[in-house]
Specification:
Blueprint (H helix, E strand, L loop, with lengths): L1 H17 L11 E5 L6 E2 L4 E5 L2 E3 L6 E5 L5 E6 L3 E6 L5 E2 L3 E6 L4 E10 L10 E4 L2 E6 L3 E2 L4 E9 L2 H22 L1
Antiparallel strand pairs: 1-4, 1-9, 2-3, 3-5, 5-6, 6-7, 7-14, 8-13, 9-12, 10-14, 11-12
Helix pairs in contact: 1-2
């Protein structure tokens, strides 16, 4: 009987590992991009627009951000567990683009790591902040040259449905054990 209980516990752990309960992917989350003003993104002087303002995270670039000046252009690509913000401008961009707000993540953001950038100046890991369902990039005092980017990994915890599935599995193991004991 102890062998059956042991096998049931091992099976429960294997199922929980393969069900993705340790790290949720952002794919499928809907996210909205806003900035300092009612425009999509602004640095207080230039107003920027983006297309689209809300999107579902999937393959490819989620946001194409363009400035009023034709030479200002960025892309924002959100992956399963990462974000890449890239300057696509043909020339140097000084003064940054202000604060970029990504809000409405369905997954719960629990951390940001592996920050990397080759921006010309003015942006570092302390300029990236997050809450449970949002990320802010403060690029107010940054400068960019063509093809420079910043990137970081996003840690998200499983949505409640995954946790519920794991809890039901453990409850089933406990119920079976109790039935075998009686």
């Amino acid at each position: 009987m102890q062998m059956k209980v042991f096998r049931a516990i091992i099976t429960g752990f294997v199922v929980s590992i393969f069900s993705g309960t340790t790290n949720a992917a952002l794919i499928g989350d809907t996210v909205t991009l806003t900035g300092n003003t009612v425009q999509c993104v602004s640095d207080g002087f230039f107003a920027y627009g983006c297309n689209p303002a809300s999107t579902t995270i999937g393959g490819g670039i989620e946001f194409d951000i363009a400035g009023l000046a034709p030479s200002y252009h960025w892309s924002l690509d959100i992956g399963a567990n990462s974000l890449v913000f890239k300057d696509l401008s043909p020339g140097n961009v000084n003064g940054g683009i202000g604060k970029v707000y990504l809000t409405g993540f369905d997954s719960v953001i629990s951390g940001i790591s592996n920050f990397a950038t080759d921006a010309w100046f003015g942006i570092d890991a302390s300029d990236i902040t997050f809450t449970s369902n949002s990320i802010t990039i403060d690029a107010t005092n940054s400068g960019w040259m063509p093809d420079q980017q910043l990137s970081f990994d996003i840690t998200a915890i499983p949505e409640p449905a995954t946790l519920t599935l794991a809890a039901l599995g453990l409850a089933g193991i406990a119920a079976r054990r109790r039935k075998n004991l009686t």
